[in-house]
Automatic annotation (TrEMBL), chain A:
<feature type="transmembrane region" description="Helical">
    <location>
        <begin position="46"/>
        <end position="64"/>
    </location>
</feature>
<keyword id="KW-1133">Transmembrane helix</keyword>
<feature type="transmembrane region" description="Helical">
    <location>
        <begin position="210"/>
        <end position="226"/>
    </location>
</feature>
<feature type="region of interest" description="Disordered">
    <location>
        <begin position="1"/>
        <end position="20"/>
    </location>
</feature>
<dbReference type="InterPro" id="IPR013783">
    <property type="entry name" value="Ig-like_fold"/>
</dbReference>
<keyword id="KW-0813">Transport</keyword>
<keyword id="KW-0411">Iron-sulfur</keyword>
<dbReference type="Pfam" id="PF12801">
    <property type="entry name" value="Fer4_5"/>
</dbReference>
<feature type="domain" description="4Fe-4S ferredoxin-type">
    <location>
        <begin position="263"/>
        <end position="292"/>
    </location>
</feature>
Automatic annotation (TrEMBL), chain B:
<keyword id="KW-0349">Heme</keyword>
<keyword id="KW-0472">Membrane</keyword>
<dbReference type="GO" id="GO:0020037">
    <property type="term" value="F:heme binding"/>
</dbReference>
<keyword id="KW-1133">Transmembrane helix</keyword>
<feature type="domain" description="Cytochrome c">
    <location>
        <begin position="205"/>
        <end position="286"/>
    </location>
</feature>
<feature type="binding site" description="axial binding residue">
    <location>
        <position position="173"/>
    </location>
    <ligand>
        <name>heme c 2</name>
    </ligand>
</feature>
<keyword id="KW-0997">Cell inner membrane</keyword>
<comment type="function">
    <text>C-type cytochrome. Part of the cbb3-type cytochrome c oxidase complex.</text>
</comment>
<comment type="similarity">
    <text>Belongs to the CcoP / FixP family.</text>
</comment>
Amino acid sequence: MSRIDPRPPVAAGADGHDGAGQSPAPLYATRQKVYPRAVHGPVRRAKWAVLVACLALYYLVPWLRWNRGPGMPDQAVLADIRQARLFLGPIEILPQEVYFITGLLILGAVGLFAVTSLYGRVWCGFTCPQTVWTDLFMWVERRIEGDRNARMKLDAQPLSAGKALRKVAKHAAWLLIALLTGGAWIMYFIDAPTVVREFFSGRASAETYLFVGLFTFTTYLLAGWAREQVCTYMCPWPRFQAAMLDENSLVVSYRAWRGEPQGKPSQPGVGDCVNCHACVHVCPTGIDIRDGQQLECIGCALCADACDDVMHRLGRPGGLIAFETLGNLAAATAATAALPPGAARRDPGMAARRPMRAIRPRTLLYGAVMLVVAAAMGTALLLRADQDLAVLRDRAPVYVRLSDGGIRNGYTLKLGNRGTGEAVLHLELDAPPGFFFVVQDAEPDTEGRPLLPLQRDGIGQWRVLVTAPAWVRAHDSTDIRFRVVDEAGRTAASAASVFLGPRP
Amino acid sequence: MPTKIEKDAITGTDTTGHEWDGIKELNTPLPRWWLYVFYATIAFAAVWVVLYPALPIPGATGLTGWTARGALREELAAGSQQQQAMLARIRAATPAEVAADPEMRAFALAGGRVAFANTCAACHGAGGQGAAGGFPSLADDDWLWGGSLAAIHRTITHGVRADDDNDTHATLMPRFLADGMLNAAQVGDTAEFVLSLTGRADDAPAARRGSLLFAENCASCHGDRGQGNQEMGAPRLDDQVWLYGGDKASIVRSIAYSRRGAMPAWGVRLDPAVVNMLAVYVHSLGGGD
């Protein structure tokens, strides 16, 4: 909490002040700028690897091609706003099938819960776009303005030509990255090669420029300026992620049982923490991990790398700050309480730890939810028909009495085709003997059956008149079923309706 | 005014000094830029009030002159502008040409549906189902004045017994009883014969007497077996569709006093393109002839 706390530290013994004559603390906090120091180590290397992988994924996926035949977009992953289609490789999702996207979102959310309950906020620390782009922007910042101390010195300096040059260079680099980010985002919505050509030749639509501009601006603002404030002030996830954590979750922790009491390396009777502030200086959100679990901690574990570096230089084992469960912290604290601080506590403390329990009711539940959702989605996807038929019965008139005493009902058929080619279908009617039907505006095939031709990815609408001749003693309501049959005689889709007439 | 600022024991945060029934509020400071964003929204609102209609004063439109009504008018005008090219094509075509061209036909069915709801549905029903008492169904296969596209187009254009159109369908059936052409018994006999055309006569001698009267008075228009005549608008009497009721009393009344239903001539009231669209739409309701 130290970073965003705007108040001067309260002097010891000042608790219980009664406020008389004291001005209240300010309601608004000025931002304490964070200057994270560069750090090296296994966590940092993992974070670079994840960063490169995420950025590669983000920039390269729109360029993957997928041949869907003539007239269809050949981009593997494309949310085609203009035609209201979502293409994911061989899968094409229509607007009325938005539940597939709902399913994906549920899988994403529950997956996030599961990972959090196992490994804490690894999403926040490693893969969240805010983290990835902020990391990238900080890397650029370090290249241009130097590391923590150089940057602090530069910001404290009065404006000079050299400072202005560095600042302009930094912001220009940031804006360029932001533009590339915003530009790549639009490629998920419009065919990538086309939009790139159009963008640079000035022929892209106004919305394209608007959205690229918008995402350029937000990337620059969020990764360049807002940074950790996005996590601490804006993001809802830190607010409720604590509900996924328990004493068995691996979270970035300071092993206070080993580190406390803090003291100089040469001092006798102190813990391993030398209060060098390396963990604070590398923290991208500017907090002190030694204060324990806190909302601002994004779980990136760069403090672990920084601390290990210091410990190794002092000839002590690493792991004073590490991924650790709260249960193990408590166990090690209890096991070492009676021992003198420092080296004597290391081995008993580590020996008191138990391996993390990955199989727990909550992880089983998250796993089960994910399995059920994935199975439901997979089944729905596999059973999805190439054609679908919807029947809308005329309501006015309910039925028509014909001059020969027959009864006629009107229906509107809507037939959609999401197959991979043109569909040539016939209409058939399941109804009592004698019933016959006419499809308005339909060409008959060689056998006189009405043809319903459908383009790929097309929707056709036909009006069908069904007649029960006078000699058929129809009930006032008869169940009927329309079937569309393909050339092989297979029923491609069907829909039930009713045939209404006067009460006999 | 805050009275007592304390340090909260659990969070270590100051309270604001506000207290309601023992419930105290922690002072968790907002970032300062949040405050500036709030000020920016106020500035935005001030600009908005100057540019756009925001004050509850009639006629206060702001500097841009934008109004919701004006925007709607523009949208409607733009929409109607977009339709002009297609309407011109439909205006220049015959209904049969409109029906044969898929593009024009789709447009005519959509436009005809709207025009039908505006001008026709009051009498003929929302789906053209007609109504008892002389409003014929347009969804069945029985057509008084012909069910071809051309015949429907002519009926819509000129109406039926319309006062303001010289080419209207003007034929009138005589009022046989009221004008003294038949007496009451003869009207009854004729009605009995008409019932016999659909196999419903109870009184065979009366129907036999009626057959002579029918041949003399009715067959010239309705046909010798009651098959009707669309040229004259004489309905079929040998089918199951009865515009004014098919029971004997209704038939007696029709013979005695005639019916003489009327329909306005829409040619003088509607754009020819709309009449064309109506003809195509009505033809599609029941398949037409």
